[in-house]
Amino acid sequence: MVATTATEAVGGTGAAAAAEGHKVIDPIHQFEIERIIPIRFGDLDLSLTNSGLWALIAVGVVCLLMLTAPTRLIPTRLQSVAESLYELVFGMTQEVLGAQGRAYFPFVFTLFAFILAANVLGLIPGAFTVTSHIIITLALALMVFIGATVIGFIRHGAGYMRLFMPAGVPAPLLPFVVPIEVISYFIRPFSLSIRLFANMMAGHMMLKVIAGFVIMLGVLAGWLPLMALVAIYALELLVAVLQAYVFALLTCLYLNDALHVDH
Amino acid sequence: MDVEAAKMIGAGIAAIALGGAGIGIGHIFGNYLAGALRNPAAAAAQRGTLFLGFAFAEATGLIGFAVAMLILFG
Questions:
Q1: What is the mean pLDDT of residues A91-110?
Q2: What are the sequence ranges of the domains in chain B?
Q3: What per-residue confidence (pLDDT) applies to B67?
Q4: Does domain B3-73 have CATH number 1.20.58.220?
Q5: Which residue from A15, B23, B37, B51 has the fewest beta carbons nearer than 10 Å?
Q6: Do the Cβ atoms of B71 and A245 come within 8 Å?
Q7: CB A202 within 8 A of CB A129
């Protein structure tokens, strides 16, 4: 925004060229939030936006998959999708959190399923990617961070502070180690949210830029970037699944810190 | 300096971050391959860790890419 106004202030050929460039490739446009059903209570804006709509669609898809998949002894294709997602996250909570992981499995699975559905649905051309906005991912990450911190203090009381003092560190090093541990603890929600949001946003911008190359080069040479586009789309599909997995795994690791502070 | 030229230079500098991501991803896959060839039996179990490392390394570079795009088009 600041850069745009600066260009306008300079005026002349620069602004004209920029406006022309925006017409051909505008990778930012896909992240714009539009109101679909305006709802207002005074100053409070509760409109249903395209972001909210796709978040609801993601929740709906997850509910449909997990609730309506048949429960046969020999699984159907849809059932094995639902079961392998369940088993993936269940195995992860058992592996990282141990026997206590069972209590936190519903939370981790809800996070994983929502992020996975939002990421994958965002890859449909024309769809809105819910997780490409930092406000969404930061809200999810803060939920994990605050939740894990509260669980840690409830379970261990002030003993949770031992997390900042790793065992076996010589006393002269403690003044250096403790601040680093504290900073790395409080940076967690930001690294967690920025990782997901930057991956989604950069991936979609890259797809849009290369799709712009296809249009610009036309029929003669456009198939070259089209091939790259197909390959990058496959990579983005991998990244969409991987980032949901990474988010869930890091949630487990943070919960593990809160549950087993002595390790 | 012209603002437009400065934006282009800034976006180019921001894109250097992708070089670091390339080194990191190559390092991860190379080391995985080296380990997997020494002990193929243990390779399959570490594939999850491999992709975890790949995701971490890629994320740092993508932040640079996002900054470059925001400078150019934002």
A1: 91
A2: 3-73
A3: 86
A4: no
A5: B37
A6: no
A7: no
